[in-house]
Amino acid sequence: VTIVVIDLGNFMSRRTKTRDWLIIEPVPFCVCFCYTGRMIWNSNYLRNFIFGVEDSLVSTVGLLSGVAIADLGGNAIVLTGLVLIFVEAFSMGIGSVLSDHSTREYRHRGEIALSRSTSGGLVMFVSYFVAGFIPLLPYLVFDRVATALSYSIVLSLAVLFGIGFLVGHISKTRKIKEGGQMVLLGGLAIALGVFIGQLVKHW
Predict the structure, then answer these.
(1) Nearest 10 degrees: CA dihedral of 100, 106, 112, 114?
(2) Which residues are registered as beta bridge partners of 182?
(3) What is the pLDDT of residues 8-54, one digit of tens each?
(4) Are 177 and 161 contacting, i.e. CB atoms less than 8 angstroms apart?
(5) How many other CB atoms are found less than 10 A from the CB of residue 201?
(6) 189 and 61 in contact (C-beta within 8 Å)?
(7) What is the reported pTM?
(8) CB–CB of 70/200 below 8 Å?
(9) DSSP assignment, residue 125?
(10) What are phi and psi of 22, to 5 degrees?
């Protein structure tokens, strides 16, 4: 058994041997384990990454679809998307830091440095920020809003399926099912955005 532990700022305090696993507690900044040659990512980072990408794709494609259907123009769509991505990425990152910090203090029944929760928040910020440009990219490339809308929706749903597939692979569940659930969630957001856009257009 090969075990690799990468620590990003705290010392491991206690070790126990359970079957083939070497469990090290606590490991709040442990990045990954290697078990018989297979890499397993720390659940905190994985959760922030998946949550950031999924939320960014769903909210951004839903909003942009609504603005596009409302026929507010290409510049308005791009401006709306940029504001959403920057503000929400920062908000989600800060929210991740604060929630993780509160959880740590509750779990340890004492005061803990805020800096110990910043790594998860950074993962959330970067994943949300980068993923937000996926549905926005077609509006930067194509002049026709209708064409950009189609590409934005297809591209976003494809990436959502890929994220779901990845989740299924990591969790050892049905990959197609997980991907389909992500696509369904994104489709609902798009439908809601289109519905609101139609209301605004005919108001």
Answers:
(1) 30
(2) none
(3) 344 333 344 444 434 333 334 333 433 333 444 567 888 899 999 99
(4) no
(5) 12
(6) yes
(7) 0.77
(8) yes
(9) H
(10) -100, 110
